[in-house]
Amino acid sequence: MKAMLQIMILVCSMNLSPADCQLETALDVISGPQAQSVVACGLQGQALIAATSIARRGPGEYIKIKCSRVVKTAQKS
User: Fold this and answer.
1) DSSP state, residue 70
2) Which of 62-72 are b and which e, b meaning 16 or more Cβ less than 10 Å from the residue's Cβ?
3) For residue 76, what pLDDT band results from cuts at 50, 70 and 90?
4) CA 69, CA 60: separation in Å to the nearest integer?
5) Which of 1, 24, 26, 33 is a plausible cystine mate for 10, CB 3.0–4.6 Å?
6) How far is CA 12 from CA 59, 60, 71, in A?
7) 14 inside domain
8) What's the CA angle centered on 7, arms 38 and 69, to 5 degrees?
9) 3-state secondary structure of 75
């Protein structure tokens, strides 16, 4: 089974560099669906932004797509 990736849409201040735009520093974080690959994560993240009003942000903000590995815990039998 492939490792899943969680799509996260980060809304960050233009005063923050893209490298510093993280979950902890973003103005807003939108959790999207899970994807099976980095390519799918990027494409689905772009589609999510295009299909919603997420992209219509203030003039001092930008959007970043972050793909994070989903950590699965082992289930007890």
Assistant:
1) P
2) ebebbbeeeee
3) low
4) 29
5) 26
6) 11, 9, 25
7) yes
8) 65
9) coil
Q: Does residue 53 or residue 33 have the better pLDDT?
A: 33
pLDDT digits (tens, 9 = 90+) for 3-24: 799 999 999 999 999 999 999 9
Q: Is residue 55 part of a domain?
A: yes
Does 67 have pLDDT greater than 60? yes
Q: Tokens standing for 68?
A: 């994070």
Non-local (6+) Cβ contacts of 27 within 8 A are 11, 12, 13, 61
Residue 18's domain spans which residues? 5-69
User: Considering the domain boundaries, does residue 75 fall inside one?
Assistant: no
Mean pLDDT of 11-38: 95
DSSP states of 17-41 as a string? -GGG--TTT-SEEEEEEEESSHHHH
Residue 29: pLDDT band with limits 50, 70, 90: very high
